[in-house]
């Protein structure tokens, strides 16, 4: 089904490499053209036969849940930073665009430049939620 294939393609995507894991943040559209976010954790693992496989976990986050999700994430991150101030903190990744709404433009618009590729330095461990 060609229409179904288009629903599965992200409108915007960001890969975040964090050690042995990679997180994929994909903006997709529903059939009614409402946007939502999928967050996929992918971890490379060796199976019993010695071949590499990928273990994936995925969550779906809808617009109406962004604020509550952000509040919860901020709360638990602040708890960790308060309770474990001795833990090293990496410099957070700052998206190249000022606001999330500017990043959600359809990728197939030829007159617009594609957003820069994410950093490959291994320190892009998260998205600056203040930019959402």
Topology:
Elements: H1 2-8, E1 12-18, E2 21-29, E3 35-46, E4 52-62, H2 66-83, H3 100-103
Describe the structure.
It is a single chain. With 132 residues, the protein is an alpha+beta fold. Helices cover 22% and strands 30% of the residues. The protein has three helices and four strands, in the order H-E-E-E-E-H-H. The chain has a four-stranded antiparallel sheet with strand order 1-2-3-4, with no helix packed on it. Strand 1 and strand 2 form a beta hairpin. About 18% of the residues have low confidence.
Could you give a short account of the major beta sheet?
Answer: 4 strands, antiparallel
Low-confidence stretches: 106-129
User: Ends: how far apart?
Assistant: 33 Å
Widest β-sheet, arrangement of strands: 1-2-3-4
* Average predicted local confidence, pLDDT: 75
Using DSSP, what is the number of strands?
A: 4
Number of helices in the DSSP assignment: 3
* Total separate domains: 1
Task: Give the key terms.
132 residues, alpha+beta, Nuclear Transport Factor 2, Chain: A, 4-stranded antiparallel beta sheet, 3 helices, 4 strands, 30% strand
Question: What would a concise description of this structure say?
Answer:
This protein has helices spanning 2-8, 66-83, 100-103, and strands spanning 12-18, 21-29, 35-46, 52-62. The protein is an alpha+beta fold.
